[in-house]
Amino acid sequence: MILEVAVLDVRPGESAAFEAAFREAQAIIASMPGYRSHQLQRCVENADRYLLLVEWDTLEAHTVGFRGSAEYQRWKALLHRFYDPFPTVEHYVRVV
Questions:
Q1: What SS3 class is residue 18?
Q2: Hey, what CATH class is 2-91 in?
Q3: What's the CA gap between 61 and 55, in Å, rounded?
């Protein structure tokens, strides 16, 4: 299992619109082969910051399967306009 981790900084004043767009977009990612689960968490100290955690079967399920899919273009159209700066995405594997 691979954990995708992305810190999402949303443009000030856009959090409500981002959350609404994410409610629609989450169905896209949940439909992808290799997807296991996801969480979107809002930061307590910074209301415009979110943490997206997505569990995938493999790294390639995310980096090749999802990002290479037509569905990813819809995901981008729904969400990418909200980010400033654009998020860095990292992948983790459980150690313990």
A1: helix
A2: alpha beta
A3: 10
Percentage of the chain surpassing pLDDT 90?
100
pTM of the model: 0.95
| Pair of tokens at residue 96 | 């313990």
In sign, the C-alpha dihedral spanning 75, 80, 55, 22 is negative
pLDDT at 73: 97
DSSP 48-94: TEEEEEEEESSHHIIIIIITTSHHHHHHHHHHGGGBSSPPPEEEE--
- Report the alpha-carbon distance of residue 1 to residue 94 in Å, rounded: 8
Mean pLDDT of 76-93: 97
